[in-house]
Amino acid sequence: MAELAASLAREHGILIVAVLFGMLVICVYAAMSVTHGIERRRMEQFDREFGRFQAASMEKKR
């Protein structure tokens, strides 16, 4: 098994590195997409709450 891995690494080193790099890029993209969705939901929630707060403070001023 070790001999097979060594021969694969010698013959297809660049290909293996390219595939691993591609997998890394996909994982980073997925993580950024998930965190962006979470952040967008947080901002929407904040906007809703802040809008309610502003409406309440405007009513107090009247």
Automatic annotation (TrEMBL):
<keyword id="KW-0472">Membrane</keyword>
<feature type="transmembrane region" description="Helical">
    <location>
        <begin position="12"/>
        <end position="32"/>
    </location>
</feature>
<keyword id="KW-1133">Transmembrane helix</keyword>
<keyword id="KW-0812">Transmembrane</keyword>
<protein>
    <recommendedName>
        <fullName>CcmD family protein</fullName>
    </recommendedName>
</protein>
